[in-house]
Design goal:
By secondary structure, the chain is an alpha+beta fold. About 20% of the residues lie in helices and about 20% in strands. It has helices at about 5-10, 55-65, 70-75, and strands at about 20, 25-30, 35-45, 80-85, 100-105. It binds adenosine monophosphate and zinc ion. Zinc ion (ZN) binds near residues 1, 4, 6, 46 and 97.
Length: about 120
């Protein structure tokens, strides 16, 4: 996609710190880290989000995730990590090219979001 920032990063038109690359994906450092280690897994094929992906895209994404098991040492994630893929407004997706946040390198917050279950009646 012409104007997609992540497509530009994948094509090397915008600088980034690429920590891994293969035929399916690149993994880069997030420019505004929210954990000691904060990477973005970017499938090379452009599609907006998890709802937009085809069966074939799903297979490719599965292969990318499986590949992570061989990269944990290199990425400094030996003690664990969290994967997040935001979709749409409620989740604050800001870049419309599917990406998976990989967070770790430290003990992360126990909660994954600001929702307070105590406000529910039941
Ligand atoms: P999301 O809010 O899930 O769409 O996440 C988009 C992420 O992309 C954010 O964490 C941004 O910090 C990150 N980001 C935006 N532009 C760049 C860039 N040029 N290089 C690396 N990360 C970026
Ligand atoms: Zn794109």
């Amino acid at each position: 996609m012409e104007n997609c920032i992540f497509c530009k990063i994948i094509r090397g038109e915008i600088p980034s710190v690429k920590v891994y690359e293969d035929d399916d994906m690149v993994i880069i450092n997030d420019i505004a880290p929210q954990a000691k280690k904060h990477y973005l897994l970017l499938p090379k094929k452009h599609y907006a989000n998890i709802i937009e992906m085809s069966e074939e895209d799903a297979v490719t994404l599965g292969r990318c995730l499986k590949k992570l098991s061989t990269l944990v040492d290199k990425l400094g994630l030996e003690n664990g990590f969290r994967l997040v893929s935001n979709k749409g407004e409620d989740a604050f997706q800001t870049v419309q090219h599917l990406h998976v946040h990989i967070l770790g390198g430290e003990k992360l917050g126990e909660k994954m979001c600001s929702f307070d279950a105590n406000i529910l009646d039941n």
